[in-house]
Structure formats: structure tokens, C-alpha cells
Amino acid sequence: MSKLITCLWFQNNNGEEAVRYYLDTFNAAPGNHSAELGDITFAPKASEGVSGRPEGSVLTAECTIDGMSFMLLNGGPNEPYKLNGAASFIVECETQEEIDYFWERLCAEQEAAQCGWCTDKFGVTWQIVPRILDEMMRDPNKAEAVTAVFMPMKKLILEDIKKAGE
User: Fold this and answer.
1) Domain containing 58: what range?
2) Count of CB atoms within 10 A of residue 96's CB?
3) Same domain for 64 and 98?
4) pTM for the complete prediction?
């Protein structure tokens, strides 16, 4: 794991399920994506009183996804630590096939999504975007037309974005 690690707090104690889902999702993805399981730690008896996790239950599951380190913590139902869309993870895609794949795998409520942003079944927010979008948005001659096309979209359509940038 790197020195900078994203820790995600899972209120429903489904961090281990989530890490395995993300590993399966990224390892099976088209394109150049990868995921690797790291350490899994178990709650010691001494932590039961504070954490509410029974001794021997999964406390954390670590992984690396596309080179980024994560720790998924079974933290329990502590409201201030609820996952929300204020933080999201961007998945840059080269092709519409990749966009479609990640959209299907990572968007639990596709009708609630907007301009490539969606939330998965665990409450983690993702942005499924074509890699070229950032480049187009930095070009003042393309940004207005590209923005007008992608903002109303739910799942982003690469070909429409490319046409807007021409």
C-alpha cells in the first residue's frame, strides 16, 4: 500500500463484500484495469467495546485498484461517517465499451445518475468518464460545446462528446 490511502467507512459492515466486488469488477473490465487484494484484518477482543465489532470479524480489507490504495473499514452505523457524493472516484475510460461496462457494474440507480456520476450499491460515488473529456474541457474552443452535450447525459456517450469537440 502507498503512503496515501483512501479509507472508506462502511456502515453496514459490508466492506469485505465491497472489496471483493471491486476486485471482480476491475479485474474483469475491458481495457487496462487491475485490482489486487491486500491485507484483511480482524477485530481483536480489545476493540469490541469501542468498535462494536465482535472479536474475529472482519475489521478492514485493503486493496489496490488501478494503482490507488484503499482500506475498506467496517465501521458500523456512525452517521457522521456515512458515504456520500461529496467524494467520488473517477474511472477514466478509453472506449464506449469500458464506459458501458463500468456503468452497468458501478451504478446502482442509473436513473438517479447525472453527467457520468453515479453511486454503487455500497454507497460509493463514481464518475465514469471518457479519458478525452478532461482534455476537451481544458480547450476553451471546445469546452462550451462539449459541456452542453454531456451535462444532460446520465451515462456518457463517447461518440456524442467527440462530435461536440470537433
Assistant:
1) 1-78
2) 15
3) no
4) 0.92
Kindly state whether residues 94 and 39 are assigned to the same domain. Answer: no
Quote the number of domains for the chain: 2
Amino acid at 128: I
Identify the CATH number of the domain in which residue 160 sits.
Answer: 3.10.180.10
Enter the C-alpha cell of residue 86.
461529496
Q: What are phi and psi of 157, to 5 degrees?
A: -110, 110
The residue from 78, 104, 129 where one domain ends is: 78
**Residue 134 grid coordinates:** 478532461
* Helix orientation angle between 15-27 and 96-106, rounded to the nearest 10 degrees: 160
pLDDT in tens, the chain (166 residues): 568 999 999 988 899 999 999 999 999 999 999 999 999 999 999 988 877 789 999 999 999 999 999 999 998 888 788 888 899 999 999 999 999 999 999 999 887 889 999 999 999 999 999 999 999 999 999 999 999 999 999 999 999 999 999 9
How far the first Cα of the chain sits from its last, in Å, is 41
